[in-house]
Amino acid sequence: MAWYYFDSRDDGKVITDDVGLEVADLETVKVLAAKGLAELAVDVLPGSLERCLGIDVRDANSDPVLTTELIFKARLLTN
Amino acid sequence: METLGTRHPLEPLLRKLQQWMPLDAKEADAVRALPYEVQRVKAGAYIVRDGDRATRSCLLISGFAFRQKLVADGGRSISAIHMCGDMVDLQNSLLGVADHSVQALTQCNVAFIPREAVKEIAFAFPNVGMAMWCDTLIDASIFREWIANIARRDAATRIAHLLCEFGVRLEAAGLGAKLAYELPMTQEQLADCTGLTSVHVNRTLKALEASGDITRSIRHVAIADWGKISDTADFQSEYLHLAPDCAGSRAA
User: Fold this and answer.
1) Domain covering B154-233, topology
2) What residues does each domain of chain B span?
């Protein structure tokens, strides 16, 4: 088990994780980042036309271990 | 008889039952005369395990506990938070087998009351039985609210709702004030209460701070404007049935 910090990006805005999580391995880190990103998307994408979301994970030494990104684009195809 | 300070250990139960139903002196004495055994339980320890055959009911006389179920992949869902005065498994006095687990959230003192004694007092003193019935009905009302919370509210609303409910129940139990309290929960436990990841809980708590709904310092939560957070939380307290004319007078 090791501590990891999951910082979120919503377009240009970064929300830094100052609490962290104790996680068993990097595979679980990836799963948690993906689920966290999906939850962020559920909350912010309705009403958006373009949005870039991401979660960047640091280890206890603040070294980056994972970056994720989700790009959303919506285009209305009728007038 | 074991006592905690000068207070009778079953006094929190009496207070809770009287919230739902006025009890006269004889009925109150009968509650105080229930047989019990007090045990100290460490944070994280199990009070009841899923599948246990119930031989006793558990009254929380200090500390906090939660009800939880585990799913096949190991994920945990917390379905209720309990505090002093709560019977954490009153339904077991009739159902017989625990269908979920109860764990201590903090160090707790728990009074274990034999299941048969709970049944006997409910039938010998119908008002006590009615108050216990109301208690389980209100538990069910809270479960329904939590299901709606998880099923249909966004993350900020879910977490704000949980913070409102915790404050209101704490105040009703005489354990604190709804506008400022210690929340005895980790972000992982908050996540398991709200069906979110702790990653999203962390982010959402920060958003609630940024919007001025709450201020936090470690586990201390302060709410400056109850109206504002109630709006954010979609919180109306009627489901807690705390109004004086709610449970008791209807049952009478």
Assistant:
1) Arc Repressor Mutant, subunit A (1.10.10)
2) 11-146, 154-233
Residues of A within 8 A of B155 (CB-CB) are: 39, 42-43
Contact flag A39-B207 (C-beta cutoff 8 Å): no
Distance CA B35, CA B53 (A): 19
Interface confidence: ipTM more than 0.90? yes
Rounded-to-integer distance, Cα B251 and Cα A61, Å? 60
SS3 at position B219: coil
Interface test with A, best of B190, B197, B232 (most A CBs within 10 A): B197
Tell me the pLDDT tens digit for each residue of A23-52.
Answer: 999 999 999 999 999 999 999 999 999 999
Continuous H helices in A1-79: 26-44
CATH number, domain B11-146, options 2.60.120.10, 1.10.472.10, 3.40.50.10860, 1.10.1040.10:
2.60.120.10
